[in-house]
Amino acid sequence: MNPDDAATSDLEAATETATVTVETANGRHHELTAAVGVSLRDALLAAGISPHGRYARRVNCGGRGLCATCGVRLADPPDPDHWHDDLADRFGYPRLSCQLPVREGMAVRIPDKRVWGGRSEG
To answer: Which residues does 18 contact at the CB level (< 8 Å), separation at least 6?
Structure first.
């Protein structure tokens, strides 16, 4: 394989897209298409869907995984690859959309975020 073929292959892999199904806190359903591997938070924002609560839309960490305001619930979450993801799964907390790469077939629900730290599914 020559280097040009490898570069083309890398570019094609970088532009592979996936469909993500989203249910917002108000019960609306959306489908969006995003590049595989980009952060779910960025994909949601690019589609005009905020993963943040009303007040955190203006005050958040910008996708650095520090403020925990972009939490989403996943229908089929990936296996935790970090201790904080393991604890989130174990105690029923949402996963941070800024730390989740987009993958094919993702189904996410953005919970109502009027109360910070709530664990209820409601």
So the answer is: 33, 34, 35, 36, 102, 103, 104, 105, 106
What CATH class does 16-109 carry?
Answer: alpha beta
Q: What is the pLDDT of residues 51-96, one digit of tens each?
A: 988 777 778 888 888 888 899 999 988 888 888 788 888 888 889 9
Alpha-carbon span 113 to 15, nearest angstrom: 32
Selection from 62, 57, 103 nearest residue 79 by Cα: 103
DSSP state of 58: T
For residue 10 the two structure tokens come to 């890398």
**What backbone torsions phi and psi does residue 117 show, to the nearest 5 degrees?**
85, 0
Helix (H, G, I), strand (E, B) or coil at 69: coil
